[in-house]
Amino acid sequence: MAMGRGGWAVDLAAMREGNDDSKKLERQKLKAMEPKRENESDGFKAEEYWLNKEGCPVETVPIRKMTKKQLQRDLDASMSLGNQYFGYNWIDFAGIRIQATPPIERFYGVSAFLSIYNPQVEGNGPYSAATIFISNGKGQNVEEIQVGWIVHPSLNGDTRTHLYTKWTVDGYQKTGCYNTKCPGFIQLSRVIPIDYAFPRTSEIESYYKEEVLLRLYQTEYFDYHLTMPVMNEEIGMWPYEVFDKLSANAGDLVQYGGKVYTPGGQYITPPMGNGKFRGGHWLLTSYMRKVLYEIEVDGIKQQVSPDESKVEPRESRCFYEGNHYNANDGYWDYNFLFGGAGGGDQSEFCQY
Questions:
Q1: Separation of alpha carbons 150 and 132, rounded Å
Q2: What is the Cα–Cα distance from 164 to 149, expressed in whole angstroms?
Q3: Phi, psi at residue 160, to the nearest 5°?
Q4: pLDDT digits (tens, 9 = 90+) for 156-200
Q5: Is the dihedral of CA 329, 331, 332, 334 positive or negative?
């Protein structure tokens, strides 16, 4: 889960967007940045989360103990999902997207390593997330699953960085919610709850980065499963009955990146990622690496790196994406940077 036991030293000045020579040098530097881990799975420990230091008993799963105040907070957060996509609210996304166009007919899954940060989010309603998602359809007919990490005080009651998911079958008009706040997502892991609070997050300029590898994919039974492959942990699933198009036809769009929500009437947008964007500087900027999607190749489902010719970069107001390319080194592979400081709702006030 939370990884990053090794470190690296790198000449930051050499890592810039630019000509082919600088790109080649950047690839060499990226390869040198691979942390040397003592144990690839040395990250999540039950004692960091559970009082009994073990997790739930076998054949049971964690369910959060709720107060009346927490129940109301969860209800408010879930009811606001539809409002986020209509009216005078801001939803900012910076990252990459790939649409299913020939020879790709459909997507059966998404996967990536996400660097973990703790952006400062204040007030009632706003959030900042790093997310990967798969969807089918458009507008009010979209069916979608998002997974990643999020700082959402209104949802979680704190400013920590949590694992999360949210989904819809009608563009968030009447259906969908976060985590297990409504029927749909089924918790399977007895150790890692879907709203798990990461005990450690990355520090800017630190050589040690905390990461989480997430994989969301459709099984042969048309269910969707969320796993943490490094931990060999299955977090949970959505039964095929939850979705229509996503179950029958899989996804026609996949996206990876940062997402920030600012409710209408609020004029300060929260930061995305680690609150900075420095093109070419993986040490200073939030990133995703080893980005994969699952498609059918010669009749067999396979996880593959994005076709660079099909990748569409996306930026929004004062949030940016950059350095997307495939390092082909077995560690970074397809990777990109994203983030920004946020600020006022007019572009001249945005910081970066």
A1: 12
A2: 6
A3: -80, 165
A4: 999 999 999 999 999 888 888 899 988 899 999 989 999 999 999
A5: positive
Edge-to-edge strand ranges of the sheet holding 268-269: 268-269, 342-344, 350-351
- Distance between CA atoms of residues 333 and 93, nearest Å: 22
- Which amino acid appears at position 344 of this protein? G
The CA-based dihedral angle spanning residues 36, 38, 44, 47, taken in that order and rounded to the nearest 10 degrees: -140
What is the C-alpha R_g of the chain? 19
3-state SS class at 223: coil
CA geometry: angle 124, 132, 64, nearest 5 deg: 50
CA angle 131, 213, 216 (to 5 degrees): 60
The residues that bridge with 150 in the sheet, in sequence order, are 129, 162
Residue 258 corresponds to which amino acid?
G
pLDDT of residue 247: 96
**Which two structure tokens, joined as six digits, stand for 303?**
């996880």
Sign of the torsion angle spanned by Cα atoms 30, 32, 38, 40 = positive
Say which residues have a Cβ less than 8 Å from residue 65's Cβ, sequence separation at least 6: none
Q: Please measure the distance between the N-terminal and C-terminal CA atoms of the chain and give it in whole angstroms.
A: 29
> Is the pTM above the cut of 0.90?
no
Distance in angstroms (rounded) separating the CA atoms of residues 70 and 252:
36
Question: What mean pLDDT comes out for the span 316-334?
Answer: 93
Of 322, 305, 307, 318, nearest to 345 (Cα)?
318
Domains of the chain: which residue ranges?
46-351
Grouping H, G, I as helix, E, B as strand and the rest as coil, residue 250 is coil
